[in-house]
Amino acid sequence: MAGLTAFPLAYETRLITDWLNGPGAGVARQFPAMAAWLRHAHQGLAVSYAKYPFLAYGTDWLGFGHLMIAIAFIGPIRDPVRNKWVVQFGMIACVLVIPLALICGPLRDIPAFWTPIDCSFGVIGIIPLLAAYRHIRAVERDQAAASQPAVAATAS
């Protein structure tokens, strides 16, 4: 989704709360704290966006930033070795998700049960990045091995 979901937050939270009040009522009964938090989050967005619509502009920029970061990942697809720094950047970002969630969550009154959900973005996100990084390292080794005989032949 690469940030596209940051644009319609009030709409998305309305959809989830409508679902929790209808077909998802069983889920809401199973996880009442989570359902209450999602309703609270929707109310906060709906009220603040209605009274102060410019606040949504902040999440517009958030979405834009995510889209720009996603575009950077085209580089490793096109030329993995030359652009391995993008994959390294992504892995660093995944690691830093965890302290951000652990520090800022409590500062912003995010419920403790939500912190593992936020941390999971870093944990899950790093898995394909590690696989890509291993692949890039293998390509680098293959390229180095392929260039070795050429170097030895030119030195003779």
Question: What does it look like?
Answer:
This protein has 156 residues and is mainly alpha-helical. The protein folds into two domains: 1-72, no CATH class; 73-147. It is built from seven helices and no strands. It has helices at residues 9-21, 25-30, 32-51, 56-72, 74-78, 84-107, 115-155. Helix 1 packs antiparallel against helix 3 (32-51). The chain starts with 8 loop residues before the first helix and ends with a helix. The mean pLDDT is 93.
| Unreliable stretches | none
Radius of gyration: 22 Å
Number of strands: 0
Q: Give the biggest sheet.
A: none
Integer average pLDDT: 93
Give the H and E element order: HHHHHHH
Overall SS class: mainly alpha
| Percentage of residues assigned to helices | over 70%
How many domains make up the 3D coordinates? 2
Number of helices: 7
Oligomer: single chain
End-to-end C-alpha gap:
54 Å
Which strand-content bin applies to the residues?
A: under 5%
Coarse shape: elongated
Topology:
Elements: H1 9-21, H2 25-30, H3 32-51, H4 56-72, H5 74-78, H6 84-107, H7 115-155
Helix pairs in contact: 1-3, 6-7
Question: Keywords for this structure?
Answer:
single chain, 156 residues, mainly alpha, 2 domains, 7 helices, 81% helix, elongated
Brief account:
The protein has 156 residues and is mainly alpha-helical. The protein is built from 7 helices and no strands. The N and C termini lie far apart (54 Å).
